[in-house]
Design a protein that fits this description.
The complex is a heterodimer. Chain A has 2 helices and 5 strands, in the order ββαβββα. Chain A is an alpha+beta fold. Chain A has one domain. By secondary structure, chain B is of the alpha+beta class. Classes of the chains: A alpha+beta, B alpha+beta. The interface between A and B is large, with 67 and 70 residues.
Chain lengths: ~120, ~350
Amino acid sequence: MAIPGAVGASIVDYTTGFPVATTGAAPNEDHEAAAAGTADVVQAATSRSLFVSAVPHDLLEDLIITTSGGYHLLRLVQTDFDSRLVLYVWLDRVQGNLAMARRRMQKLADELVAT
Amino acid sequence: MANGVHVTTSKTAAPTRLLTQAAGERQTGALVVGGHPGGAVYVLEGRVIYAESPAAPGVGELLTSSGRLAARTWQNALDLGTSTARVGRLLVEQGHLTQGELELCVLGATYDAAYFALSAAAAPVEFRTGAAHWLGPVVHIDPGAINREVRRRIRLLDEIFPDPRVDTAAVSPVPRPPRERITLTALQWELLVHADGQRTPADLALLLGKAGYATVQELRRLAALGLLELPEVRTDSTEFVRLPRTRGSAVDAHRPVVRADGGPAVPVVSGAAPVAAAVAAPDATDPPDPALAEETGANGAVYRPPRLARRKPGAKLPKDLAGEAPPPAHPGTDEVLLKRIRTALRALR
């Protein structure tokens, strides 16, 4: 399994913005700041803007932030018990393939729990 | 097996300092913290393997109250594995949980309980050398990371609504919201529906199977919104209409619930993209499917800013674009990176 163009990744507790695990590079070399930002974005999407409640029983799957230099993908890790984790992958804009990365992140998030 | 949170002989100190000391000496045992809520942090050769507190649901409560495990399954694992301290391993070996689930659950429960056990500036603390936990070692966390995270979590709560009484007092929703329209998250709704004026935040966390810290965090947000009676302003009278004074003290309309700024801006990657995690990605051997190819084509070439999809789903790609794909194999991250996330999970604790 490959995510071409991935520069760095982490698993973040989005209630607290705590990076549970990190690997590779982080924006500004600061995984903790990236994790805090990740948590803010997830909170904004779930609790403040109401995108996730547009349809009954809708569920937030992922969030994609596009900058001129990169893609920032956030994928919610679904567990049966209360865990509140999000997988974050930073993709290089030129080398990355957004659609492929998105599908592979889904697989990774599922495998994190399923194995 | 010193699982209880009963303190016999102890001195008053900062729990985090004692944890650091136990870690420095690579000790094995339990740091038992008294007071309210108190708790215990279990260390194995200087690394934290578990923590528990009456204010935080443990692994068993999280797994059973969510319905992930039947109460009987959990009880069986306890009966079988408690004496040998391998309850966690048993659940995986018997196929009730995956290793990933167990690790994520233990990790979450440990940081959660550690917050309650260690957040007091001073409390009666005692180190019980040799004490082991029946769960067994599932994760190994650096105590420094725990201490830092505890301090950060204290700060986060105060940024939301700086009143620690909310964390412990019986939860009592205001009978009438302080404004015409309010928006709640699912957890906030659950908390308000189950708050009966008697249950404390810890009771609610256990009842709902939610992390104790997440519960307290949402309650502080509710308090900031003016939706909770603060202990001080509670009265025994049954008046249903609150005086404006109450609103004023409880509602801080200008306070953003979540830090709106100060967070890191999404950075701009400069021309030379970081290649710290450069690992050979055999992308050429992995042809993107047609649905992905347009994206790839665009990215393989020089970056052209606002390029919107001009192709209908399923339509054939223009020949010149399709020819470009796949892009030159990028020494990007891959399977190794993903595996490293798992490895990092283990390495970080």
